[in-house]
Amino acid sequence: MNLKLFLSNLFDGQILYDELGLLEELVIPGDQLHLLKEDLLQVESLDGEYLLDVGWYPEFNATGQFIIMIIKKCNWENPILIRKTSDIQSLKQILITCKSISNF
Questions:
Q1: I want to staple 86 with a disulfide (CB 3.0 to 4.6 A). Which of 11, 42, 50, 65 is the partner?
Q2: What's this model's pTM, rounded to 2 decimal places?
């Protein structure tokens, strides 16, 4: 399953922004540097209380990593969850966990 299809099947909430789905799942992130930006995915929970945010830090850098955060009530200073990975398969598992934490 490609990454864009995975994301659309996973989330019931509103996908506000998605460039994560442009990544090739079977290609290592370091070979897709031109797509690795700080703003890759934002999903709003069904109740509008939570925001899921995914980005690559540092942007366009092969030694970077995905940072996944769940933000409650726009409180970016105190995310309720922060996870990091540089692997797309691990990222998918983290997103599944995020789905179970909040109703995305």
A1: 65
A2: 0.93
Q: Please tell me the total count of domains within the chain.
A: 1
Report pLDDT digits (tens) over 57-82. 999 999 999 999 999 999 999 999 99
Report the alpha-carbon distance of residue 72 to residue 89 in Å, rounded. Answer: 25
Buried b (16+ CB within 10 A) or exposed e, 37-51: eeebbbbbbeeeebb
60: phi > 0 → left, psi -120 to 50 → alpha, else beta; which? left
For 43, residues 6+ apart whose C-beta sits below 8 A from its C-beta are: 11, 13, 14, 15, 16, 51, 52, 104
The arrangement of strands across the sheet holding 50-57 comes to 14-18, 41-44, 50-57, 65-72, 81-85
Residue 58 preceded by cis peptide, ω within 30 = yes
Instruction: Provide the domain limits for residue 56.
Output: 3-101
